[in-house]
Design goal:
It holds the Pfam family COesterase. The chain is of the alpha+beta class. The protein is built from 4 helices and 14 strands. It has one domain: Alpha/Beta hydrolase fold, catalytic domain (Rossmann fold), CATH 3.40.50.1820.
Length: about 220
């Protein structure tokens, strides 16, 4: 899993109680560079969620094993009207645990991201009782997996404008981080306080992002 925080981390002490979610179906509409997106407001957690926002065109057909093609007004591949961002997009194609059933889940049309935020206004850091109370905003970015994201072959390198192959999943992450820089202010986030983090293979990806000059300026901590 690969995620980004758009503000600083909220440290919580004591037991965490999970309650059943109460959702305000009216939600909220936010305007990004590709148009309007309508999310959901969770009354229980008092947070907004925007799910299944495409940040790149589906990597299928001529775009399979190619760098991601960003969804933006310049590329003229935006959605029409208002995007209903209430449902998660498909996960990227992968084997279904426990990896012995010879089955897969997800599909190739998977380059979506999700945003959770407690406020659509600019979030400020406040000090209470000699300890920092810091709110956070979270974005989860899907990226291509397995052979679709990391297969390296000379036949895929030939004809590629990057003269490489096998880095498609990392390119997806970088494209997602560019989307964050361009749009996250509209959700109350701070593009100057981006912290990517990951678990398992997503954790390994953080090292790649730190090593790559392509990630310069896209995040500030890791």
């Amino acid at each position: 899993m690969f995620c980004t925080l758009l503000n600083l981390v909220l440290f919580i002490s004591g037991p965490i109680v999970v309650e059943a979610a109460k959702v305000n179906k009216k939600g909220k509409t936010v305007k990004v560079d590709c148009g309007r997106v309508r999310g959901i407001y969770n009354v229980t957690s008092r947070a907004y969620s925007f799910r299944g926002i495409p940040y790149a065109s589906p990597p299928v057909g001529n775009l399979r094993w190619r760098p991601p093609f960003p969804v933006n007004s310049t590329n003229k591949n935006c959605w029409r009207g208002r995007l209903n961002a209430r449902k998660f997009g498909s996960p990227c194609l992968k084997e279904k645990p426990p990896f012995t059933a010879n089955t897969t889940i997800g599909n190739e049309n998977c380059l979506y991201l999700n945003v959770w935020t407690p406020s659509l206004s600019r979030i400020l850091v406040t000090r209470q009782q000699s300890s920092w109370l810091v709110t956070m905003m979270l974005s989860i970015i899907n990226y291509r997996l397995n052979a679709f994201g990391f297969m390296s072959l000379d036949m895929l390198r030939v004809g590629s404008h990057t003269n490489t192959s096998g880095y498609y999943g990392f390119m997806d992450m970088l494209t997602g981080l560019h989307w964050v820089q361009n749009n996250i202010r509209q959700f109350g986030g701070d593009p100057n306080q981006v912290t990517p983090f990951g678990q398992s293979s997503g954790g390994t990806a953080i090292y790649a992002l730190l090593a790559s000059p392509l990630g310069r300026g896209l995040f500030h901590k890791a």
